[in-house]
Amino acid sequence: MMIENILQDAIQHSRNIFKGKTSNKTYRNYTKLTPNKMARYTPDNIRAREDKHDEFSDQLREINHITDKYRHCLFSSKHDEQLVGNCGELTIAAFNYLAIHRYNDILRWFSKNGRGRGNEDYIMNPIYILFLMFGDPYDHCIAVITHPRETQHKPTLNHLYRALPDHSWVCDPWANIACSSEEYIARWQRKMSVWNSKGKATSIYQEHQFEDYPSPATEENLNAINYSIKRVVYMAEIRPHSRTKIIQ
Q1: Kind plus residue range of the DSSP H or E element containing 10
Q2: Per-residue model confidence as pLDDT tens digits over 188-245
Q3: Structure pTM?
Q4: 3-class secondary structure, 52
């Protein structure tokens, strides 16, 4: 199994929990959508989803441990088929799915495909799943799988990155992107261009944010995602023959 498939499974898992979609994506002209989709993006329904997301986000803020946040997401989704989640909530689900349910698959992939494959010392080194939060001027969250022997850098809690760690793997459930860290910015740019061509707009940082519905494909958006400082908020440490350790 390819690492991208594991990341895509995590994205699908997170989206299965938050079937009410997000509150920060809309369309510049929702009347051109199909009837079912049009109903979702009326101004009244967008505001209702924003309120629903804010209420759920407040609930998660009261929970300390990221795995307990995940359990609350799972519990809530069983009682609400239209749970709304943005990048933070989606990444909580993806991060825990990778750490709890796919750690053996991740270990196997690195042992067979990492640059030190076949080297027992390489395989015995821990692999890390990072929950990265983007700071100003961009508010975004992603999960990243990284191996210190690949990057020559051991991650630590609250470590700040400007560029993503190289030779790592990105899971972005909000943008539906699963790829290497080296590809991420280009994949993001292409995805925003596709969204723009479909008339989609996002509530993201731009100087003209409050001027109607700004395009997601602007240079300001790309620069923000590219140059924002990314902080390690949570970590999962995966070791062979050991349980995954969550660090926060």
Answers
A1: helix 3-17
A2: 999 999 999 999 988 755 555 555 667 888 887 888 888 899 999 999 999 888 889 9
A3: 0.92
A4: helix
Distance from C-alpha of 71 to C-alpha of 21, rounded to nearest angstrom: 19
Tell me the pLDDT of the chain averaged across its residues: 89
What six digits make up the tokens of 161? 């990155």
Measured distance CA(202)–CA(43) in Å, rounded: 14
Residue 53's H or E segment, with its range, is helix 43-61
Least Cα distance to 174 among 26, 2, 14 occurs for 14
Residue 240 is classified by DSSP as T
Cα Dmax for the chain? 59
SS3 129: strand
The amino acid present at 204, given as its one-letter code, is I
Above 70 in pLDDT, residue 93? yes
The SS3 of residue 33 is coil
55, 3, 4: which is closest to 178 by C-alpha?
Answer: 4
| Count of CB atoms situated within 10 Å of the CB of 174 | 24
pLDDT at 22: 94
Query: How many domains in the chain?
Result: 1
Token readout for 74 is: 């799972």
At residue 214, the pLDDT reads 73
**Which domain range does residue 136 map to?**
3-247
Cβ-contact 168, 144 below 8 angstroms: yes
| Digit-coded pLDDT (tens) for 61-71 | 999 999 999 99
**Which residue in the block uniquely carries the two structure tokens 């995966």?**
238
Q: Where are the alpha helices (DSSP H) in the chain?
A: 3-17, 35-40, 43-61, 66-79, 87-96, 103-113, 120-124, 148-151, 184-197, 219-227
